[in-house]
Amino acid sequence: MTTAIEATEAGAPIRREPRFSWLWQLLRDPLGCFGLILVLLIVFAALGADVLSPYDYKALDIKARLASPSVEHLLGTDNLGRDTFSRILHGGRIALYVALVSVGSSLVLGLFLGMLAGYGPRWLDNALMLLFDAVRAFPVIMFALAVITVVGPSLETIIFVVVVTTVPGYARITRSATLSLKNTEFILAERSLGAGTIRVMASHLLPNLIAPLLILASMDIPVVITIEAGLSFLGLGVKPPTPSWGSILNDGYSFIRNTPWLVIAGGIPLIITTLGFTFLGEAMRDVFDPKLKKDR
Amino acid sequence: MLLYTFRRLGLAVLIVCLAMLLLLAAIHMVPGDPAGIALGPRATPEMREAFKVKMGLDQPFFVQYFNFLTNVVTGDLGTDVWSNRPVATMIGEQLPHTIALAIVGLSWSILIGIPLGCFSAVHRNSLLDKFTGVLSVACIAIPSFIVGLYALLLFAVELKWFPAIGAGDSGDLGDQAMHLVLPGLAVGLGWVGYLARFVRTSMLEVLGENHIRMARAYGLPTRRITYVYALKLAILPTVALLGVGVGSLISGAVFAEIIFARPGVGKMVVDAVNTRNYPIVMGGVLVTTMLFALSTLISDLIAAWLDPRVRQGL
Question: Please, what are the domains in chain A?
Answer without folding.
Answer: 32-292 (1.10.3720.10)
